[in-house]
Amino acid sequence: MNMVDWKRIRRDFPITKRFTYLDHASAAPMPRPVYERTLQYYKELAGFADFSWNRWIARREEVRRKVAQFIHAEPDEIAFTSSTSHGMNLIAELIADQGNVLTNTLEFPATTVPWIHRNTTLKFLEPAQGIISVDQMKRCLKPDVKTILTSFVQFQNGFRQNLEAIGQIKGNRFFVVNATQGFGYLPIDVKRSKIDFLATNSYKWLMAGYGGGILYINRKWIKKFKPQSAGWRSAPHPEQFDNRHISLKQDASRYEYGCPPFPHIFAMGAALDYLSEIGILNVERRILSLTSFLIDQLRKHGFQILSPLEPSMRSGIIVFSVKNAQKLTNFLLARKTYVSPRGGGIRVAPHIYNTKSDITHLMNLLKTERAA
């Protein structure tokens, strides 16, 4: 792997001058090169307005290709959304009536609520020591289960699911993934994992700010299922302004109903460029090295770790047990150190610009608070 100048990377994040930010599983700051690229759109809007339209449309398609490449999909299988919830609703809209759904109790509500809202029967697996094993799933794949629904990484404890192993056992069922807590730093191959649908957002590990989302739909399902909603830009030739008939595009962009949210799309494209320039394997290795250091420090000082510690199940999220998570969170916030109370403890989620010094700073505060 190429050597990365992490000190230079850190300078891309002005937040480091004021705070120790270890809360990327909640939301991430936008790196300087990404927001500078995003500002370009607003400058073009101010100076040229719709004279830039064709340029923006071409740039949107460039981002679509980058997203597809990032997850090993095809561009016509990618749609831009506003959030994971938006994408998951579009998925549930298509297949919620196909049969029961197998999921688990660790899931973030954005994963399950769209299905519950449509009166789908969800079967919830309970984790064993914070883990939903593939064997556990396999035992519950009864004939009435038509969809497997899971997060790539669980927000509560950082458990990383083996997507490829699930793809091997799914049979003819739909495989739906909420990729939010892994997208941007953990490799995803939708084809190798036999994923049918995937939804994620822009503002966590991708570091592209709020308001953007990505939906992947395997090409074969685009042709099979008719959307329940459509807009003027769902048509193959929207500039014809046909208000009496509608035929739909034969690709995932049929789910982009109106004018594109250009700034959010361009921010995601800039963020993908930023991470790709560093190298996704370098990004993954950096984040996991920081969580390894955190694990060592927590063990050294007697904290109980609630996250799975098996290397293949680890992610950028580490949760450890404390008596009063909200009180400790407030104590840390007052000292400009950002974490979250999650999963029965404190959730720490470092990113590439964080350092071992940030972790040491956190540990020193934890020792201070415990001694008080």
- What is the count of structural domains? 2
Approximately how much beta-strand content do the residues carry? 5-15%
Q: Structural class of the secondary elements?
A: alpha/beta
Spans of 5+ residues with little confidence (pLDDT < 50)? none
| Sheet with most strands | 7 strands, mixed
Helix content: 25-40%
Apparent shape? globular
Strand order of the largest sheet: 2-8-7-6-5-3-4
CATH topology of the largest domain: Aspartate Aminotransferase, domain 2
The total count of strands amounts to 12
Alpha-carbon distance between the two ends: 45 Å
Radius of gyration: 21 Å
Q: What is the fourth-level CATH superfamily of the largest domain?
A: Type I PLP-dependent aspartate aminotransferase-like (Major domain)
Average per-residue pLDDT, rounded, comes to 97
CATH architecture of the largest domain: 3-Layer(aba) Sandwich
Oligomer: single chain
- Report the total helices: 12
Order of helices and strands: HEHHEHEHEHEHEEEHHHEHEEEH
